[in-house]
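Notebook entry, structure prediction.
Reason for the run: the old model in the group folder had no record of what sequence produced it. Starting over properly, with the input documented here first.
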Amino acid sequence: MEGGVNLKLTMESGQPPHFTWRKQGEKYWRLIDGKRCEIWQAGDKVKVTPGFGWVARRLLRADDDLGRVYANLIADRHLAEAVRRYSGLRLTKSEAWETLVTYICSINRNIPQIRKDVQKLMNEDGWIKEPEEIARAELPKSLGFRARYLTETAKMVSDGEVHLGRLNYLTYDEAKEQLMRLPGVGPKVADCVLLFAYGKDEAFPADVWVKRAMHKLYGVKGEKNIAEYARKRWGRHAGYAQQYIFMYARDALGRKVDKSA
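New structure, fully documented this time:
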């Protein structure tokens, strides 16, 4: 993988694997079609259960050249510091329906709560229940109002009102418009799905941490203004910029943050 990988940072950075994979010791694991797949770091190498190399390459976006990403990001001194702290953090790629379910579960939740509910929605084969299953299932009460969003979204997807498989062929703006037809899917959830499932790297999901950081570091407020600023400043690497800002914000916002950019 060009530019290397820090597996711990990547798997525990609020991306889909943070919720869909489990950790045992220094290994991360989940069931793939009913079989246990483990992934772990050994020095500068990523190891994976034999037969599942394709899982690791897809999950960790092995074709991404972090060196080229960093060359763009470090021109910004705040991101230069974030790159120094979190070198090896990669964007991940997960299945679209799984990612959509994960981020509907995430609405106004913390990471432990999200993980618990996402795990409850997995079948014995290790995958998230299909849309048809969720549409007719009695969902966990712990989901609260999100259960209605999931049920209604599942019905729309299973009925073909929004065809997730076709979003790959749409532009970023077109795909985002389609996703936001789904109950519970606002700009942030849509951007998470587009970034982490479809690899549309111009997406810039702005949760509370990213919004605070963008205001403090760059003086930008408002979801629409933040998204436009990010795409103009970081272009095709806006998604990577977001992930590094997210990690930096969680660590740095408790202290004084220099506002000049």
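Summary: The chain has three domains: 7-85, 96-196, 208-252.
The old model has been moved to the deprecated folder.
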